[in-house]
Amino acid sequence: MDDRQFRTAMGKFATGVTVIATEVEGDTHGMTANAFMSVSLDPKLVVVSIGEKAKILSKIKESKIFTVNILAADQQELSMIFAGQLKEHKEVAFGRLDGKPVLDGAVAQVACEVSAEHVEGDHTLFIGRVTDIHLEDKEPLIFYSGKYRSLVAEQPVTI
Ligand code: FAD
Ligand code: NAD
Description:
By secondary structure, this protein is mainly β. The protein is built from three helices and twelve strands.
């Protein structure tokens, strides 16, 4: 099995899009990620998976904190900025939740403290203990088969 086949198959799992953010000595760093999952309700835990080449990896190891910002449908540009897909550098202002950097306008902001990290293959899984949450009533951004999408509500069937 080649890498392309694996990625094509994994891309068939439609996901939301998040920006993981952390802060070291006052410098905030963000990275676009769709490898995010809810893990446990009691205690409240989530997991993110960060590639070994990502600059944010060493920063989360050092800070021991991160936030997960679940992007809204109108935040595709932020996804592209934090995936390094835009040519020009754009300044992004961060807000605060529980003292941690978050992106305003996200569908959900989830503030976490690292409770465990596991190296698996070429990624590190960070388990985050959730310390605070902020929600907004907006539609999410969707990622499917390598393309951004938006949710389309099913029309009720009328006979
Ligand atoms: P960099 O390459 O340094 O940062 C990424 C970009 O963010 C740069 O352009 C940088 O300028 C910008 N940036 C960072 N901080 C700031 C700031 N404070 N203000 C303004 N701009 C800033 N990779 C994974 O490891 N796991 C995943 O789950 C994952 N999911 C992805 C899902 C999607 C939909 C996409 C498009 C990519 C995904 N990636 C994932 C790939 C990952 O987003 C890129 O490889 C990313 O460029 C790696 O980031 P980095 O930490 O090396 O940081
Ligand atoms: P793509 O076809 O590369 O990705 C489709 C799916 O494959 C992703 O949703 C993910 O589930 C999986 N995948 C892709 N790269 C992976 C990796 N290095 N490790 C583990 N799983 C991976 O989609 P695309 O639009 O070309 O992606 C844009 C860029 O973002 C690519 O460079 C891709 O490698 C990267 N990306 C990385 C991850 C990740 O590291 N977990 C996830 C998504 C995208």
